Structure formats: C-alpha cells, structure tokens
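Quick one, tokens below:
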C-alpha cells in the first residue's frame, strides 16, 4: 500500500482514549465493521477497514486465519486489538449462541455430554438410550415391528 492509502485511511480513524480503540468513522457494513474504499487511482478496491489496518501496520493476515477483535468493538481498527485466529476460535471467543452452546458440558437433565455426531452435535448417552428405548416401546405397542415382519414375509414368499 502507498502512503496515500495510509493517509486516507488515517483520516477516517478517531482514537478513543479510554479503551485504546481506534474507532472507524467512515462507512460501515451491517454488523458495524468499517468499510474502506481505496480510490480507483490507487487500485480501486473495497476493503474491510480492520483488515486493511492490520495489513498496513502489521503485515499480511496469515492464510486460513481471520481477525478477531480482542476488544469486542466491531468498528475498532487498532491493529493491536486484532489477532489472527481460526474461524472456530473466533466463533468460540464471541458471545453468540454457538459460543454459549460450546461452553456447555452437561445436557438439560444434568448428564455429561459424552457423544458427538458426525455433524458436530452433542448428546449424552443416558438421554439417548432413554429416548431410543421409549421409541422402541411405542412402536412395539403400536404393532409397528409385527407389521414390518409380515411385509417382509410377503416379499420373500414364492
């Protein structure tokens, strides 16, 4: 990046003395992250302001990583408040439902989560066993298994 881009970038930054954040005063996107449009004469790109800040002051963001705002302020562009981490780590550090759910170690009935699904879901073996047993008993009472046996016998009859 050129010195012109740096000076245009810095014109949109306001340091906040109490937190150390550099607040972005330019345009933003939906969740409050800054947006910086590099003029066409200087390359003509639209960039996220915090990513550009990191690259201007610290260097390239390592491949496969994204920037985590350590201060939790989306409009902050202080490179000292940005850390390259994996997407999973960034989500787990957040305050959204995924992060909250990931910290749970026990099911709603108080059993330890001890099983994982292929898609990353979790359950406890005790509740899973209880649910499977209840389904089996309901089906047996409704004649489900007997009906299946009769269907299979008809298919294999000569």
């Amino acid at each position: 990046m050129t010195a012109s881009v740096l000076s245009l970038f810095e014109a949109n930054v306001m340091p906040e003395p109490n937190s150390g954040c550099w607040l972005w005063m330019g345009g933003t996107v939906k969740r409050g992250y800054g947006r910086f449009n590099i003029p066409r004469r200087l390359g003509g790109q639209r960039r996220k302001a915090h990513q550009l800040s990191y690259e201007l002051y610290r260097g390239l963001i390592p491949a496969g990583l994204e920037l985590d705002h350590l201060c939790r302020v989306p409009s902050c562009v202080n490179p000292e408040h940005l850390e390259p981490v994996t997407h999973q780590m960034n989500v787990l550090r957040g305050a959204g439902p995924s992060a909250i759910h990931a910290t749970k170690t026990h099911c709603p009935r108080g059993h330890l989560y001890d099983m994982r699904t292929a898609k990353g879901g979790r359950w406890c073996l005790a509740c899973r066993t209880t649910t499977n047993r209840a389904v089996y008993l309901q089906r047996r009472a409704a004649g489900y298994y007997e009906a299946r046996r009769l269907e299979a016998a008809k298919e294999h009859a000569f």
